[in-house]
Amino acid sequence: MNPFLTEEETVSFPPVSSYQRAIAAFEALARSGGCPPWLGVRSREDVLIDAKAVDERLRAGESPPLAGLLVGIGADRVLAQRLARAGAVVLGSADPAGVAAEPAPDVLDAAVCTGLPADCRGLVALRPTPGLVPGHPGLTVLARDVERGQHVLAALTGPDESDPASREWPASVRLSAGEHPHIAVPSAAGLAALSTVDRSAFAGTVDTLRAAGAVVEEIPLTERVRDWAERPATTLRGHDALCLPASGTTPSPAELTNALETAAVAFPDGRGRGAVVITRAFDDQVGIDVAGLLSGIQAGTPYPSTGIELIVFGAYLRGQPRNGELTGVGARFTGFAETAPHYRMVALPGTPPQPGVLRADRDGAALLAERWLISPAGLGTFLAGLPAPLALGSVELEDGTHAVAVLCDAVAAAEGTDITSYGCWRAYLRYLSTQRPTVPAPRPASG
User: Fold this and answer.
1) Same-domain check for residues 119 and 186
2) Where in this chain does the record put each Allophanate hydrolase C-terminal domain (predicted)?
3) pTM higher than 0.85, yes or no?
4) HSE on the CB side for 231, CA within 13 Å?
5) Contact indicator for 185, 217 with CB cutoff of 8 Å
């Protein structure tokens, strides 16, 4: 029986209701001769009642993020309630140790276990920073892909009064790995115990990372982990993440995550036992992004629930000179935005070239910008480095909503050149690139 439903076995159109999904799960269990010993399935009647309740919520206009998902979880009332609020249907109670040893059957979309599996078996495993999920410092979510796993993990995350050790996201949490994350990988000596197949599979993973834009550096794994254990503050210093095979290294990913305060994502590599990305505590999204680079599947929103939308123009756009001030604090590009047709853009004097955007009483236009998500502390750092005459203000977007944006002082803007007609900064830069300086014709030599 394949672990979890494969994409070919799911029905994407028309949408499958939670009730239909539950019926299909019980039929699959009957065909397979029953459930594995680690999964205690609830009564069919109770599961179907819960599934109908989710469908009723959808018909009433709610949009629970986990609607249609069947989940197996241990006997934890707090976490089961969180899953139910998010729209998941708990199929049964799962023995966490058993799930890790023998991943869930194809009746489940996700299962909660303890510890990282030594073999991904086609599944993704997300182990959050200890304390983010109350009561379970070693909790891991197994799912069919990163996106499903992240959504389930997000529903479980958040402090609870029953666990004094549970934690909030810090104000400085990174929301993105950036376009060129620095990834450490074991040197050849650290991979010597791997089989030829597993070594080849991991080499393919490293090649994919490089092709996706990551900066990869080999490190002496055993020595470096020993240093990190002695001085935890130096963990992964100089790197955004560590990528290593799911098994066959010393220490193993499971041993490393147990010894250090880290987050981890394990995923299949298509050939060997899989690979694991390990990050510093609270850099969970960095690991998820790196795994997304390798799997090609990424959730539309980041795992951390904190974040402030910021609208930027000019030198702060991707690929422009000051964009590093956003990526340096872990800000996340989330798409493009267009302002309401009430704004002007001027080219300000100075280096690097930078436009000023301000609201216009007349002759305004809609301007193209970028949306970024930034942590509260990151926004403070960004604001501290914002040069005059730029300042943070409120901008009206085309849909009538408002967001924080980088705008310009009106007095300073009066000294700039109006470039509103170009509609966006990049269009103006393209225009400048077509302008060739005029070279005067050489004068004839005087006799």
Assistant:
1) no
2) 308-429
3) yes
4) 7
5) yes
pLDDT category at 213 given cuts 50, 70, 90 is very high
What's the CA dihedral at 146, 152, 158, 159 to 10 degrees? -120
DSSP 212: T
Helix (H) or strand (E) holding 369: strand 368-374
If one counts every other C-beta atom within 10 angstroms of the C-beta of residue 266, the result is 28
Assigned domain for 445 exists: no
Give the domain extent around 89: 7-156
The answer to whether the bond into 352 is cis (omega within 30° of 0) is yes
pLDDT confidence of residue 188: 95
Q: Report in angstroms the alpha-carbon separations of 237 from 207, 230, 293.
A: 23, 14, 22
User: 57 falls in which pLDDT band (50, 70, 90)?
Assistant: very high
β pairing state of 368-374 and 308-312: antiparallel
User: In this predicted structure, what is the pLDDT of residue 285?
Assistant: 97
Strand ranges in 268-342 using DSSP code E only, listed in sequence order: 275-280, 308-312, 332-338
In Å, what is the CA distance from 250 to each residue of 28, 135, 189, 224, 281? Answer: 40, 29, 10, 11, 21
Residues 336 and 372 placed together within one structural domain of the fold: yes
Residues 339 and 236 in one domain: no
- Residue 110 CA to residue 119 CA, distance in Å, equals 16
User: Same domain, yes or no, for 152 and 201?
Assistant: no
The whole-number pLDDT of residue 220 equals: 96
| Two tokens, residue 119 | 């073999």
Q: Which residues pair with residue 395 across a beta bridge?
A: 403
Tell me how many helices (H) and strands (E) the chain has: 13, 19
3-state secondary structure of 174: coil
Of 115, 176, 123, whose CA–CA distance to 299 is shortest? 176
